[in-house]
User: What shape does this take?
Amino acid sequence: MKAAFELVNTQIDYSFSVEEIHLPYFISRWHFHPRHVEIILITEGTGNGLVGDSIQSFGPGTLALIGANLPHVWLNDKSHYQQETDLSASAIVLKFKEDMLGQTFLNLPGLQPVRHLIEERSKRGLLFFSGTQQKIAEEIQKMLSLPDFERIIKLLEILKLMSCSEDFQYLSSAGFTNTNNLNDCDR
Assistant: This one.
């Protein structure tokens, strides 16, 4: 199955997007973002996340980092699609360009772990758990009410926490080959 190219709409007023989603079920399809990294915190709903060549169950509290070009989709359990259900799906989704702060920012001394997180580790997708997941989930919730400058600082704090954490597992296998081609996909 071909992954669809999803254009990330970052508003002119913001350096990156922070979106809170509330729906009966997640409306998405197998897709990727060519130059954007995604952080997703599931706050309500259950189902399976397909990331690269993996399938993982998700529920409230699931926290994942999805690298640029990595195909993924979050599909709710069948019970979410029933007409007579009061189930819902909610998430907070952050999307940012790999070079959001400029081509050389991540080359600054002290930022090598963040650069490695974004340029290398995120390409397989990461699922965070334990203390890291709880701390980052709190920080993501705070972002919703912050102005742009403070959001940038909070994002850097979150990336630092992720880059230093050992409370994660890779989602895609090391052998996963990403064959996305912008000329050969739906938009």
Summary: Confidence is low (pLDDT under 50) at residues 10-14. Residues 55 and 174 are 15 Å apart (CA to CA). Residues 148-164 form the longest helix (17 residues). The longest strand covers residues 36-44.
